[in-house]
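Postdoc handover notes: sequence design on the structure in folder B. Input tokens:
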């Protein structure tokens, strides 16, 4: 296996990113840890310098997708790296868990395998596989990144990984769920809950608009309506994605849903006119 780049996007991670990086560096000593900071207001240089192997400080906050893309560009430009592990800054791991993750990478990433995913907490492994894998921690090969490209920055945050996994699958690669359970403190950076809900709802529909299949668009809108209005509750109601959609409540949730439908329709019209 070639050298592994560990890419960690950071936003206000001073309270927890050290607990993510130290076990990674000890568990995979030959890895190279790159942190891309998204213009954090908590003085990131004060806690990142000397902690990771290299840091990139973005001057303006742009969201998760642009931050990850900054790191992926670094990955592509430095040919000694053959694999990139993209992880949130607030995963909960120890050295033993990191070694299990590394062993899974060695076993599973072959030429035909495009993505290696992991289970976020105690999620249902029967659902969280293929394009439904969680994007909190996943591994890509250089070949895949060179062929498929970067994350779609239109998503800003939430949904961009599932969109990317779909593109990887469309390119003919396999998506592998390792079934290794990794803890994650979701939304550890403490960003606005209502804002997060907006992006979660808007981007759920955006994924279907990109496919341009009206039946899938209508199905996704209906699914969101049932979730927001408490007409359906999934088995794993502690799932962060479900909580983001339902957290605003019925009134605000429906307003966000209507706004998300309008946003996607106007966005589609704008793209056609460009």
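Designed sequence:
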């Amino acid at each position: 296996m070639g050298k592994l780049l560990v890419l960690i996007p950071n936003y206000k991670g001073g309270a927890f990113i050290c607990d993510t990086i130290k076990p990674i560096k000890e568990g995979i000593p030959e890895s190279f840890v790159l942190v891309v900071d998204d213009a954090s207001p908590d003085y990131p240089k004060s806690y990142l310098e000397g902690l990771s192997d290299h840091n990139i400080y973005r001057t303006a906050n742009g969201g998760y997708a642009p931050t990850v893309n900054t790191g992926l560009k670094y990955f592509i430009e430095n040919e000694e790296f053959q694999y990139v592990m993209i992880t949130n800054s607030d995963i909960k791991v120890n050295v033993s868990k990191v070694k299990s993750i590394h062993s899974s990478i060695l076993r599973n990433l072959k030429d035909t395998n495009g993505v290696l995913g992991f289970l976020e907490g105690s999620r249902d492994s029967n659902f969280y596989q293929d394009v439904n894998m969680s994007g909190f921690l996943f591994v890509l090969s250089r070949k895949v990144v060179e062929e498929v490209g970067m994350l779609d920055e239109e998503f800003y945050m939430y949904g961009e990984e599932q969109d990317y996994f779909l593109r990887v699958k469309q390119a003919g690669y396999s998506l592998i769920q390792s079934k290794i359970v990794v803890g994650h403190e979701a939304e550890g950076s403490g960003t606005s809950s209502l804002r997060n809900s907006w992006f979660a709802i808007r981007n759920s529909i955006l994924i279907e608009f990109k496919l341009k299949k009206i039946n899938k668009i209508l199905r996704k809108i209906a699914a969101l309506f049932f979730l927001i209005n408490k007409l359906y509750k999934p088995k794993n109601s502690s799932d962060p994605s479900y909580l983001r959609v339902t957290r605003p409540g019925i009134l605000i949730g429906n307003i966000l849903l209507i706004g998300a439908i309008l946003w996607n329709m106007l966005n589609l019209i704008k793209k056609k006119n460009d």
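Context for whoever picks this up: The radius of gyration is 18 Å. Don't rerun without checking with the PI first.
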